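Re: [ENG-882] Designed sequences occasionally contain unexpected residues at chain ends

Forwarding the minimal case from QA. Structure tokens:
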């Protein structure tokens, strides 16, 4: 594992309800600039969101501990007909990693149908705890997306974009590595999403980001923060104004870590707005179907491409 640099620090952006989160205010415009500049520089930032309370955080913590304590054969019942949406675990390259996916994660029905597979007799506490977080994460992502659309002068497309977004949540456990075991929790990758949010649950850092200059740096996170990250699909949509950062999880010297990622996927064709195409930014991606892109990426032969999205629909 390469060493980490201290040259970079992920920008922390305060997102305060009733202050800078009201469209049209001066404070909103200032925050839009901070958000877009962080995304253009690092592809992600740390959002310090006042609605992300200790209570919501603790609720997710309890939910995840209870969930991962279930027997493996039950966790493996987490299946989906969408590619890469189900249970992941016991992978030889990343033995410490285990994860489950929850589709339509910000809806009652989505959480409920996941809960019913894990606990056929129901588990209301789990569902409630999780839903409070997934709704919040979706809300935060939508605010950030609105800021991006407005900043790039394409606010008129925001409503139709939001109406065709679905959220997949992935709950993740990285157990403490044993001696001589691979310490990598997740290998370097970019997300195949429009955008992602990541919340770290139990105070164990491990997320690392690759800066534009190629240097890797660690991210320190607290219970009230959520990392907001660009995926491959917003790169195509924005005609490469925003690029997804390579990131990984390193468990070297770490205790068991829990996190929850929430990933946005588009239900309609993804197209670069014509306003984002000009002489300086000629069109770089053809219009494409997000789930077909995911299918493409899920094939073994495409998993290690330099940029799956460029190969899939680059002009
Ligand atoms: O656990 C984390 O902090 C990151 C997870 C991640 O990168 C992913 O699920 O794509
Ligand atoms: Fe990721």
């Amino acid at each position: 594992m390469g060493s980490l640099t201290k040259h970079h620090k992920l920008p922390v952006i305060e997102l305060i309800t009733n202050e800078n989160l009201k469209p049209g205010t001066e404070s909103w415009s200032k925050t839009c600039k901070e958000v877009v500049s962080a995304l253009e520089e690092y592809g992600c930032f740390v959002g310090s969101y006042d609605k992300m309370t200790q209570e919501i955080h603790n609720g997710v913590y309890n939910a995840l501990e209870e969930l991962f304590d279930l027997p493996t054969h039950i966790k493996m019942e987490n299946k989906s007909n969408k590619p890469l949406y189900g249970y992941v675990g016991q992978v030889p390259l990343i033995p410490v990693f285990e994860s489950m996916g929850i589709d339509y994660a910000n809806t009652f029905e989505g959480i409920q149908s996941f809960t019913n597979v894990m606990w056929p007799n129901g588990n209301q506490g789990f569902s409630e705890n999780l839903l409070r977080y997934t709704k919040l994460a979706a809300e935060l992502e939508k605010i950030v997306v609105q800021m991006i659309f407005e900043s790039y002068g394409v606010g008129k497309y925001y409503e139709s974009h939001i109406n065709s977004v679905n959220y997949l949540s992935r709950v993740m456990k990285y157990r403490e590595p044993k001696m001589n075991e691979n310490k990598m929790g997740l290998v370097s990758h970019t997300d195949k999403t429009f955008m992602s949010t990541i919340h770290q649950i139990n105070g164990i850092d491990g997320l690392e980001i690759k800066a534009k200059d190629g240097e890797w740096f660690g991210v320190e996170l607290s219970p009230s923060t959520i990392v907001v990250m660009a995926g491959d699909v917003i790169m195509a949509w924005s005609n490469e104004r925003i690029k997804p950062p390579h990131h990984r999880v390193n468990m070297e010297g770490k205790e068991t870590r829990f996190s929850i990622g929430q990933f946005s996927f588009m239900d309609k064709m993804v197209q670069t707005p014509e306003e984002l195409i000009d002489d300086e930014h000629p069109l770089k991606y053809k219009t494409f179907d997000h789930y077909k892109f995911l299918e493409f990426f899920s094939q073994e032969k495409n998993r290690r491409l330099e940029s799956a999205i460029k190969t899939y629909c680059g002009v």
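QA comment: On inspection the terminal residues look reasonable. The pocket of 2-oxoglutaric acid (ligand 1) is lined by residues 170, 172, 186, 191, 198, 207, 247, 249, 259, 261 (CB under 6 Å). Proposing we downgrade this to a documentation issue.
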